[in-house]
Structures
1.
Amino acid sequence: MDDPTLDDLRTSASRACALLRVLAHEDRLVLLCRLAQGEHTVGELEAALGIVQPTLSQQLGVLRREGLVDTRRDGKYIHYRIASDDALALMQTLHARFCA
């Protein structure tokens, strides 16, 4: 396998920095940690994490805009799940290092 070019490294570094910027917020990190365990509704996330509704919605919006989470509607409930394989892999590593 060929060594990556400088452009390849810079592109990868840019993607990693973008992901790390999103994760560098305690509420978003906690949300992703919970979502790494499976799909949850807003109400479930609020009850489990103690993040009040306005903050919760704002942070879920950031995660959604950045492509880290996706939604599924079931009646009046919206279910959130991690949509990014990179975010999921990073959350699993963080969990193993800091929460185990």
Note: Residues 27-99 form a domain with the Arc Repressor Mutant, subunit A fold (CATH 1.10.10.10).
2.
Amino acid sequence: MTAETPRDFIEVIHNAIPAEACAAILAQMRASAQLQPGEVGSGVFPELKHSKDLRISGRAEWQQVEMLLQQAVFKGVLSYLRRYPQALISPLMLQVQDTDGSARRLSADDFPGMEDAQLSELARTCLRPGAINLQWYAAGEGGYPYWHCELYPRDPAGETLHRHLLWTLYLNDDFQAGETEFMFQERKIAPRTGSLLIAPTAFTHTHRGNRPEGGDKFIATSWILFQSAQRLYGGA
């Protein structure tokens, strides 16, 4: 019997959006006058992250792009939840109404046969999308070499602690290197145009963005967050 390959909870979904859509986003980004120096959680530190960034959420001229990306990510998250249902049931101890009208706890065994509509509703009830940031890393100098995770307590409202999954969508691949590298999993994700990366946000998935060589690297990135306590539990 062959042992099952250990799961690293990193998923890569190829062709999440078409290559021509990636090219259009890239062209619009290159032409934008709204690019800003890339920030980490505490400000602009080029020695930690060297990029030009553009937050597109809430900008009218980027509305169609944001919708396209969020739809692709939501589809990817549903696939992720089917593979790792514990991403929902472990932190939330979800209950559903059984056929006899009584409440029962959801288990991982419920997910493989769950209708798409039911899983979509469950995901929307428990999770919410973060604001999308486009990032441009120049060849030979851009990158995010600092080993980091996506959870930190700096935000007084605790918003950054609600981040559950990270995602990156690669908009081009006409360069060398530039991988997303995960420390403990000892895994490098090579960018492929239109591919979507999904992984947990905690320190277990500490990662960095390696410097691209021979061409600039463009990505879209954000998080999937838990709904607020008030939305989930009421009265919080």
Note: The chain is about 25% helix and 25% strand.
